[in-house]
Every structure is written in structure tokens, then in C-alpha cells.
Amino acid sequence: MNKDSETRYGTVTRLFHWGMAFLIGWQLLKVFDRIDDGEHWVGQTLVPWHVSIGSLLLLLVLLRIGWAMNQKHNRPAQDPAVAFLVKAGHGLLYAAMLLMPVTGILTMLGNGYGWKVFGIQLAAKGDEIPWMASLGSLHSPIAWTLLVLIVGHIGMALLHHFARKDDVLQRML
């Protein structure tokens, strides 16, 4: 079942969801880079991939948005009483997932570092561009906002599963 249905999310949607969840979790490990100047396993092993994984996430979120728009009429039905809140919450998650890599790229370019993805130089090192660096400075606050949204998303999924005992979580598993 590749496409979504009224009762369950399809394979493609679930691959986007869980694959991106894994990669975003990896990205959030960047916070450990601030401990002991990154002189530990996480800082030396996972953090160096931060820009490349973030760039991959930008591509994936764009593809995911396109897929979601294509599947919007096939999605599982929402409880009408909370449909607005569900759409608003997901909209904020998508916005944060899109803004994170964009502000990260603005940080790299704005500070003159260039932009290198999986060993491929996409933009050369150059002069600092203050307006880009300024917008890029939103990267960290957006990361904390995304973390709060993720915790809320997980919390609501668990609430549905354990308290409401409905099939909301099962749709994505």
C-alpha cells in the first residue's frame, strides 16, 4: 500500500515520517557539541555530518510536502472537534522542518563558510553577507521550537494511544 487511505498512512508517507524522524533526531544531537567543545563521541562522530544531513532534510521536506499535498484527499479522517488544532500543529512542524535547513544554509553562506554537502562544494567560501547571517541566527531558536513541537507531537500520539485508546498512532506504525 503505497498511497494513504482513510484508515492508514501508506508506505511512502510512513517512510518519510520515520526516516525524517531518525535524521532530525540525529540533527538534534548537535546540542551535545556545546558540551566540552564537542570533544566526545557524539561531537566527533555525528556532528560533522550536521550540514550534509540538514541539506538532505531540506530535500526530503520538500518532497514530503509535495507528497502530502498529492495525498491530502486520501488521508485518514480527523476528529472534527480538533481538526484545526491537528492541522495547525502539523503546519508548524512542517514550517519548522523547512526553516531549519534554510536558516542553516543562510548561516553558512552569511558567515562566509561556503556550503559543502557530502563532500560536494555547492557554494564556495566567500565574503560575509550580514543579512544572511542575521536571518541564519534564527537557526538555534527554530531548533528549540522544533524540539518543543516534536515533544508535543510524540506526547499527543501517546495520549491517543494510551488514554483515548484510538487508532491514531497505529495509522503511522
TrEMBL record:
InterPro entries: Cyt_b561_bac/Ni-Hgenase, Cytochrome_b561_oxidase, Di-haem_cyt_TM. It is a multi-pass membrane protein. Gene3D superfamilies: Transmembrane di-heme cytochromes, Chain C (1.20.950.20). The chain crosses the membrane at residues 12-29, 49-70, 91-109, 142-163. GO terms for molecular function: electron transfer activity; heme binding; metal ion binding. It comes from the Bacteria. Keywords: Cell membrane, Electron transport, Heme, Iron, Membrane, Metal-binding, Transmembrane, Transmembrane helix, Transport. Its main location: membrane. GO terms for biological process: respiratory electron transport chain. Its cofactor is heme b. Pfam families: Ni_hydr_CYTB (PF01292). It is found in: Cell membrane. One of its GO terms (cellular component) is plasma membrane. Residues 8-173 form the Cytochrome b561 bacterial/Ni-hydrogenase domain. Belongs to the cytochrome b561 family. This is Cytochrome b561. It comes from Thiohalobacter thiocyanaticus.
